[in-house]
Amino acid sequence: MFNHKFSSFFTATALLATVAFSQSAMAHAHLKSQFPAANASVDAAPQALTLTFSEDIEPAFSGLEISGADNKALPVAKAQRNGAKKNQLIVPLEKPLTSGKYQVNWHVLSVDGHKTKGNYTFSVK
Length: 125
Ligand SMILES: [Cu+2]
Hints:
The protein is an alpha+beta fold. The chain has 1 helix and 8 strands. The strands form 2 sheets. A 4-stranded antiparallel beta sheet has the order 1-3-6-5, with no helix packed on it. The protein has a 4-stranded mixed beta sheet with strand order 2-8-7-4, with no helix packed on it. It binds copper (II) ion. Copper (II) ion binds near residues 27, 28, 110, 112 and 114.
């Protein structure tokens, strides 16, 4: 009898914790897609990097660094948020990318106040 009560209490608590956790995890801005795509090898050098997140983001506290094979950050213009899609960050490149491999390190602040970051690579043929 005691064991049964204890185990259903435990199950209910675990369930509540799972629900609470998945709700807060869902609210974070995760990178959903990007252009050029991660691991892609593109023919034409992009004029801007476009990153689409799972949540709306605050452009003033979001941005990225892009570096080439020498690990030096390349010049980029101020990060902008797509006027029509508040979950999309657009970062224009100030110089055309030459052929080679590039790493992007991004960080964003989602509108719920949570920060996320990550990185990916792509290359220009
Ligand atoms: Cu969040």
